[in-house]
Amino acid sequence: MNWEAIVIDNHSNDNTDEVVSSFGNSKVRLTKIKNNGVISVSRNLGIKEAKGDWISFLDSDDLWFPNKLERVVFEIQKLENQIDVLCNDEYMVHLNQKKK
């Protein structure tokens, strides 16, 4: 599968640079911006930089299962390009804890 990962770092204070560098893959690209946390600016920049036909967003507070993108591609192929948008929402609930 042809893919790319565009990481938009909106002035984070974590180790985003090191994480992106650790992949050692030119398909994983980092762009740094500073826009006071306006998520739409970050997303629009990611869309502008994307070269593929499909885009999937992953925010810093999201958790993806290991096969998430594989499953999304399966659903897109199953529908044979009859769709323009595919959305899903999941919650992980641990016993004795709040919804995440």
Automatic annotation (TrEMBL):
Keyword Transferase attributed: yes
Gene3D superfamilies attached to this UniProt entry: Spore Coat Polysaccharide Biosynthesis Protein SpsA, Chain A (3.90.550.10)
Coiled coil feature spans: none
The keyword Transferase belongs to this UniProt entry's keyword annotation: yes
SUPFAM superfamilies registered for this protein in UniProt: Nucleotide-diphospho-sugar transferases
Keywords in alphabetical order: Transferase
Residues of the Glycosyltransferase 2-like domain: 2-96
Highest classification ranks of the organism: Bacteria, Pseudomonadati, Spirochaetota, Spirochaetia, Leptospirales
Molecular function (Gene Ontology), one example: transferase activity
Record protein name field: Glycosyltransferase-like protein, family 2 domain protein
UniProt source species: Leptospira interrogans serovar Pyrogenes str. L0374
Domain of life, per lineage: Bacteria
